[in-house]
TrEMBL record:
GO terms for molecular function: G protein-coupled GABA receptor activity. Keywords: Cell membrane, G-protein coupled receptor, Glycoprotein, Membrane, Receptor, Signal, Transducer, Transmembrane, Transmembrane helix. Residues 4-308 form the Receptor ligand binding region domain. It is a multi-pass membrane protein. It comes from Clastoptera arizonana. One of its GO terms (cellular component) is G protein-coupled receptor heterodimeric complex. This is Gamma-aminobutyric acid type B receptor subunit 2.
Amino acid sequence: MLRGPACSDTVEPLAGVSRHFHTVVISYSAEGSSFSDRKKYPYFFRTIGENNQYQQVYLQLLQHLKWAKIGALAEDGHKYSEYLSHMQLVLKKNNITFEFNNKFPPQGNIENIKQYLQEMVQENIRIIIGDVYDDVARTVMCIAYQMGMTAYNSYVWFLPSWLSSDWYDTDKYNKKNNESVECSTEQMVMAINGYFSLSHAPFGPEDSLTHENITVKQWKENFMKSGTNYSTPDKISDYAGYAYDAVWMYAYALRKLYDENSTHLSGLHNENTTKRLVEILKETNFQGVSGTVQFRGRASRISVVHVNQWYFNKSTDKVKSIVGIFEPNNSINNQDPLAGKLKVDDYLIHWLTPDGEIPKDGMIPPPLCLVEGFKNLLGVKDCEIAIVIANVMGFLFIGSILLIVFIRFYQIKKDELEKIKNNNDVLNIANKLDKWEIARVNVVINRKIGEGAFGYVYGGEAFFDGSSRCKNLKNWFYIRRKTRFSQRSRSYETI
């Protein structure tokens, strides 16, 4: 059994050949995402979380700060930065643009780095992830300073948390390593002031009780008394807790293996014994110095993630402030093991922008939609789709109005016709006159009386089958009534 190594690049060959020797490897600091492949690395474990967890942290942090555009720089061939490709897909699904994932060759020259940074300036990318090692980080941030890409110019940088404490000290490393970074340490302080980093929580809460029945704070005090050179608890290595818990992982697993069958310890490199040991390690669950050590059937531990900001006070001492904590869903077995909840303490963040406000992400706002309010109401993101829906709804509305008007007009006309049909005095005139029709054979026309507005008027005789009435003017009628009757008769003749 092996504990270590520390770096992802050195773990890869060792974890790859371990399956041929049936040897379990537990690393306490290798965070590369590729080691989660159980077919390729069946005997590999780590007490530190994998950087694939950073996907959810970045996603929730960007959403919290309302940033929708981000870029990245990384050295090609480094296992640590492989998570960026996976994260690009996650961000895209959540409508966050990952404009660049530039990987320059190891030991890339200054001109290559300048070119990548210049492209970011042209694309107005202001939120940048730089997954690079110390020497390249000094070069990148020096060029960024020269190009005005610092926090003072409304840029935001995310750099690895595992960079050495004085990695920015170019005055020291230009002399010590014969480097030629064209920035002084003072300029580098200006370049990196206010940068962020993500890291797995190195220790559990100070008052949390470990499996040894002591608190984390007590463990740190005991650790400093054990002959180490650490003067204060905050100087203890961030990987000390992971390494310590890795030893206890082995201890608990071997104890259980021995209890099952004591002969297993004499053949630890036997294939069946190693496979059984792996199964026991997958079930690990105890409260260690670094927090809850639990794998949930995976090669990587699911741990708490810190969002850190690094800034310099007046004495040029670098200070780390934890501005956000990501708590994984350790107790929920049926959900994505990488999922969790990020809590950000905005009041702890130091924004160095000219106005002291949160920097913009460089995203150019889309042209204002003609139906912006309607688009927001529908929850549609494409303006063209909103316009099409608005046109369809408009046509349907106008068509509905026209249909209602037509139906109303038709109903009015129908009602009028009903009234006419019900009016016997008007519509049934023909029926009343039918009984007065005379057969042609019973009519004799013997004179033409005259011509009226409706044609000629003829006089003659008619023969009726039934009796009829005749109005007779009695002699005793008044002269006035006789005169009136004569006038009516003459008027009939003129017609």
